[in-house]
Write a structure and sequence with these properties.
Oligomer: single chain
Structural class: alpha+beta
Strand order of the largest sheet: 4-1-7-8
Helix content: 10-25%
Largest sheet: 4 strands, mixed
Number of helices: 1
Number of strands: 8
C-alpha cells in the first residue's frame, strides 16, 4: 500500500523554515513540505508527524489499518508552538489561528488608536 501524506506548512512565516519530522512505527521516514509517499506493508501502523525546534511540537498522531490500495492524509502544522498539528483525510484547519491573529491584530489596533490620539492633539 502507498501512503501519501501532504505536509501543509504553517501560515506563521517564522515557522516555514523548519522542516517537519515524520515517523512510521517509530522509524524516521522522509518528510518535506508538500507531497510525500512511502510504501507500507498491510497491517496496523502508527504515523507521527511533528515539528522540531529544539524539542518536538505541533505533534499529531494517527493509527492506520492498511489494506490494498492507497491512503492520502493531510497534516497541517499549527500557527503557534503551544498548539498541536492536525492530521485528517481532507486538509484540516491549522490550530492556533485565533491566538496568532489576536497577537498580530491587537497590537496593530493599539498603535492605530495611539496614532489617532496623537493626530487629534
Amino acid at each position: 500500500m502507498i501512503l501519501t501524506y501532504v505536509l501543509i506548512p504553517s501560515r506563521n512565516p517564522s515557522f516555514v523554515i523548519f522542516a517537519p519530522e515524520a515517523r512510521v512505527n517509530g522509524e524516521l521516514v522522509s518528510a518535506h513540505w508538500g507531497i510525500n509517499q512511502i510504501q507500507l506493508p498491510p497491517g496496523r501502523h502508527h504515523l507521527r508527524i511533528s515539528m522540531r525546534i529544539g524539542k518536538d511540537w505541533g505533534i499529531s498522531e494517527a493509527y492506520l489499518d492498511t489494506k490494498a490500495g492507497g491512503l492520502t492524509l493531510h497534516y497541517a502544522s499549527p500557527y503557534l508552538v503551544k498548539h498541536e498539528g492536525r492530521i485528517d483525510t481532507t486538509p484540516p484547519r491549522p490550530a492556533g489561528a485565533v491566538a496568532f491573529y489576536a497577537g498580530v491584530v491587537v497590537p496593530l489596533l493599539l498603535l492605530y488608536v495611539l496614532f489617532l490620539m496623537k493626530l487629534t492633539q
